[in-house]
């Protein structure tokens, strides 16, 4: 009896082992092991690698071509002196005088261009080169000449602050009013005929009135071109200044 039980237990044990073996192989076939994903052949760089990686240099900006140098042997133009000659055009046929409105020299036709040498003092006359003979000058009314600029900006004809005396010394001009001599007149050493004559002033000439006598009737003047100082009756001078600005001159000794 015992022998049968032992054999039965042994048979059960063998059967159990067989069943276990079959179950294990089935599980292996039914649930195969999962494959791990393949590694990325080009992994992303780390922060450190990005910091230390060499950077590409920017391409240099295009520069403009340099201008060709000027040859050193090229001729250099020197500045020319500006021509300051004042010219004007006569706008109608007119007379040109030896003195303003006195002693006719000739006629100047309308449309002729003339060279202006200077102006008179406050009387509206221009000194010009006479177009028929430019070695001569004559006086023409300012109103019949068209030119650029203002009448008072034209230098007074015949005045020269660089004039020299016979000894070669520069003439020092007195402060005063430039005035026109109206008529030919004697300029004296003092106020009155009892004084000697220093020179004759001609109509149309310019003088500087810088003083007057103690009594009425006499101006003390200077001739710009020679520096001569003398006394002249006030009726012979076209004085346009302020009498209060003139110095009071005592009568010189005779």
Fold and architecture overview:
This protein is of the alpha+beta class and 254 residues long. Helices cover 14% and strands 29% of the residues. The protein contains two helices and 15 strands. The protein has helices at residues 2-30, 47-52; strands at 86-90, 94-99, 102-108, 113-119, 125-129, 137-141, 145-146, 177-181, 185-188, 197-201, 206-213, 218-222, 229-233, 237-238, 247-249. The strands form four sheets. Strands 8, 11, 12, 13, 14 and 15 form a six-stranded mixed beta sheet that branches. The longest helix is centred in the N-terminal third of the chain and has 29 residues, at 2-30.
Element layout with pairings:
Layout: H1 2-30, H2 47-52, E1 86-90, E2 94-99, E3 102-108, E4 113-119, E5 125-129, E6 137-141, E7 145-146, E8 177-181, E9 185-188, E10 197-201, E11 206-213, E12 218-222, E13 229-233, E14 237-238, E15 247-249
Task: List its traits.
254 residues, 15 strands, SH3 type barrels, 2 helices, 5-stranded antiparallel β-sheet, alpha+beta, 29% strand, 6-stranded mixed β-sheet, 14% helix, rod-shaped
């Amino acid at each position: 009896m015992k022998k049968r039980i032992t054999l039965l237990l042994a048979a059960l044990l063998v059967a159990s082992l067989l069943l276990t073996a079959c179950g294990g192989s089935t599980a292996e076939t039914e649930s195969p092991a999962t494959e791990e994903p393949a590694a990325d052949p080009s992994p992303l760089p780390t922060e450190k690698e990005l910091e230390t990686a060499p950077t590409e240099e920017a391409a240099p900006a295009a520069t403009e071509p340099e201008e060709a140098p000027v040859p050193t042997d090229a001729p250099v133009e020197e500045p020319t002196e500006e021509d300051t000659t004042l010219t004007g055009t006569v706008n109608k046929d007119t007379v040109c005088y030896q003195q303003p409105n006195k002693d006719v020299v000739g006629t100047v036709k309308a449309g002729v261009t003339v060279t202006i040498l200077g102006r008179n003092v406050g009387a509206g006359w221009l000194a010009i080169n006479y177009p028929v003979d430019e070695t001569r000058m004559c006086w023409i009314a300012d109103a019949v000449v068209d030119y650029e600029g203002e009448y008072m900006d034209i230098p007074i004809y015949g005045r020269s602050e660089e004039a020299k005396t016979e000894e070669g010394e520069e003439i020092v001009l007195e402060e005063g009013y430039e005035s026109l001599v109206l008529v030919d007149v004697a300029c004296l050493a003092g106020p009155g005929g009892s004084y000697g004559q220093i020179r004759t002033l001609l109509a149309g000439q310019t003088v500087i009135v810088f003083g007057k006598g103690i009594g009425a009737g006499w101006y003390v003047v200077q001739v710009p071109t020679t520096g001569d100082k003398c006394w002249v009756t006030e009726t012979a001078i076209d004085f346009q200044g302020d009498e209060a600005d003139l110095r009071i001159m005592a009568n010189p000794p005779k």
